[in-house]
Fold:
Amino acid sequence: MRMIVTFWGVRGSAPSPGRLTCRYGGNTSCVSVEAGDRVLVLDAGTGIIPLGETLAASGKEVFILLSHLHADHLMGFPFFEPLYCAAERLHLLSYEKDGRPWSLMNLLDGFHFPVEASELTVQPHRVETDPLGFLRTQGFEVRRHPVNHPGGAFGYRVSRGGRTLVFVPDNELDPPGAATVDFAELAAFCRDADVLIHDAQYLPSDLPMKWGWGHSTLGRACALAAAARVKHFVPFHHDPCRSDAALDAMQAEAREALAPEGIACTFAYEGLRIEL
Ligand SMILES: [Zn+2]
Structure:
């Protein structure tokens, strides 16, 4: 069965609405992977809000998986419509933090949001043990790898029907301290993917001020795509300060670098849809 990958939020760190960012979009991290009546949602940034509007009455089973717990990857969840009208089809895959499962339902605590979890008419299904094993029973073969990000984060490799997508929204390829994952190890994890979605937030001019903030330069992310021999590279987690015109220029630079390698490159934008 084919996977349909749709981008709902492509921005990193903070939402960035406005006329200078409206083409690529200002919502934060959220990508859906649809296969028949099942939808795997990667991250719950503000992009999950428009996704929720399309899923609420769809009758599809929805599975939410998180790369990590920074706010830009969670903040849309309390406004996710299926939570209030289709929770019986909503499966929340716990994020493992210090050996303990953490659930998005923790956001509905009465402090961060006015509605408390206990007030919901139907509770979503919390998958607290072996979330990736549970996804396997739903037809999504998912592997994960810890990556370089302050506080920790995971990258995911999702396969279905012989096609593969790798999602690494936040990762610093060359961190200042000891690396959780080195370049060659990550390239092996991404090897031969049909689509690689990887953090490419920075330009060399953003460093050294932001060295250690947990994100990669476009140049190094392109080098990873080339080393891993992926087919299509989708730079992701755009800086909130980056205008559409600046992203156009970065995309042109990346395409020029990757064309000799035979790798297609599309800078992630809201509404981008890739069929695998
Ligand atoms: Zn982020």
